[in-house]
Amino acid sequence: MQKQHIIGLSKEELIAVLENLGEKPFRAKQIWQWIYFKGARTFDEMTNLSKELRQKLNDCFILSRPKIISEQISKDKTHKWLLEFDDGERVETVYIPELDRGAVCISSQVGCAMGCKFCLTGTQKLTRNLTAGEIVSQFMVARDAYGEWPSPTLQTRYLSNIVMMGMGEPLQNEENVIKALNILSDGDGIAISRRRITMSTCGIAPKICSVLEKTGVRLAISLHAPNNEIRNSLMPINKVYPIEQILAQAQKYQQKDGSRYVTFEYLMLDGINDSPTQAKELVALLKKHKIRATFNLIPFNPWAGSDFKPSTDQKVKAFADILNKAGFAAPVRTARGGDISAACGQLKSKNK
Ligand code: SF4
Hints:
DNA polymerase, domain 1, nine-stranded mixed sheet, 17% strand
């Protein structure tokens, strides 16, 4: 029998495989806690299991992390890992610390097929989807590095949030993403609250609501433009699912729960989407669709081969002021990890 990875099995799947091995369901709960609550890295350390069961687990499963090929820590303490999976494929994962908490930005695919013009990942062709286990284990590598095992209480966590904003478009890999997010938020294990997990999409409209319903996580949309004309020029996917279709889904998502805000990611590109007129157009667009939203205004991080330039601080401020006056929070995100190419849109795991 070929060994399978145990990280990435859902609770139900774990119960079923253990039943096949002649074990009671409560054993699955114990194993789950060892892996996801205590961070065990071998079956042999699971001391409340019999030797016989530990041997069975060793015979049937692999319990391992992806290989760390390199890691870098930037001046502002942003931490980036280049991770390699069994087949040699690689992704990048980033931890962005704040004072007493922080977010781990995880990847969902090797490369990306969406080809957003401002994004370095988009220049790396899609190789494959990540499995649920490969998505979850990125977070586990980060926890290993900060010694956050067993899962700490919420107040004492440095790795407090998860953003699915790394390499790839999560909604192109929705089955594995749903499974992974449900493992990451499971209260018996890693236990990151669903409200502290954000999934960011470039706008695969028909899949937005179903994935959010199945996971309960928060929604962020990479908008980056106030109209279809500009968005078409930046994001090829907009020609398939234009802004109106995406906003209709965002509205539907909010109708289920009035407290949900949608975050719109908006990259500030000099002379492209950053004028006061465009800010007003954006306000009118969201008011028309009655969407409660916050914006993240993101400074563009230049990369070799890209013609885009970052907007000036003055322009960003003027843009933010217009959004604020219209009632939308619009914090300007500080560029993080730029010196180690860990900032938004800078992740790439291949040199060609
Ligand atoms: S912004 Fe996201 S969806 Fe677009 S190319 Fe980059 S990784 Fe892919």
